[in-house]
Amino acid sequence: MRVGVIGGGLMGSGIAEVCARSGVDVTVVEVDEARAERARAAIEKSLGRGVRSGKLSEGDRDAALEHLVFTPKFEDVEGADAAIEAVIEDESLKQDVFRRLDELLPDARFLASNTSSVPIMKLGAKTKHPGRVLGMHFFNPVPVLPLVELVTSIMTEPSTVDEVREFAQGTLGKTCIDSQDRAGFVVNALLIPYLLSAIRMYESGFASKEDIDQGMVLGCAHPMGPLRLSDLIGLDTLLAVSESLYDEFRDPASVAPALLNRIVEAGLLGRKSGRGFYDYSGN
Fold it and tell me: Confidence band (pLDDT; 50, 70, 90) for 282?
């Protein structure tokens, strides 16, 4: 099987890595040669960590790399059996990706989006075959976290869901849960208001970021505090999902705090930019 992964950033490179480690041929499409090489380097680094930790053999690493192709040419995805879109949370950009995928891959088994906020129906509506479009929402870091949310629009065919479930569970070894096509899906509809509440608490001066995070780790057995988790997710992504949630439900709990807006405007996006609520420049 050959899969096109559109977007080689944090999530796209993770999805591509998991596919390649499962024996799937992957074509990773990025906007230019430099970003394509950056995606390659990110996956090589991740696979290297797997070897050093003993979770992967050198043979496993080399085999995974053999399954990967990186390109700045969108048309190189032609001939793939399926595609997974993982570009930034920009609705118009994602819609354009699906329009182009629909033209290039008329016989694809499925076209999936890793979106965490854009309604799947809005993506399917840009294609001639909305029945094969659905959400396939992975979680960061993709090689570590086992969950995939399967999100179906009112037009998604049951056979498409069966195909993707078998791919995610049978081929990639993930665990799937099902969600309706509503903003935030299952996990983010619960998680984002919690993260925003933690940011408001910090913004108000009620508690330090360290104490907020330590309180949730030691008091509630969370593996990571909400502010560090926000940094890991990406503060721009957090902002985009919060806006999507508010647009759909008009719940005040989903309104982004002013501090989050200012941090994103400053380009402090969390781990991926080297600084967010915490400084990662030395990592």
Answer: confident
Known catalytic membership, residue 188:
yes
pLDDT of 130-152, one tens digit each?
Answer: 999 999 999 989 999 999 999 99
Q: What is the largest CA-CA distance in the chain?
A: 55
Which residue, 16, 27, 26, 15, is CA-closest to 72? 27
Active site residue 137: yes
Active site residue 67: no
Does residue 148 contact residue 138 with C-beta atoms inside 8 Å?
yes
Tens digits of residue pLDDT in 158-167 = 999 999 999 9
Q: Which of 46, 113, 153, 188 is catalytic?
A: 188
Task: State the catalytic residue, choosing from 30, 113, 137, 179.
Answer: 137
Candidate list 17, 85, 89, 149, residue with the active-site label:
149
Q: How far apart are CA 164 and CA 77, in angstroms?
A: 19
> What's the rounded Cα separation, in Å, for the pair 225 and 237?
17
The answer to whether residue 204 is catalytic is no
Average pLDDT over residues 51-67: 95
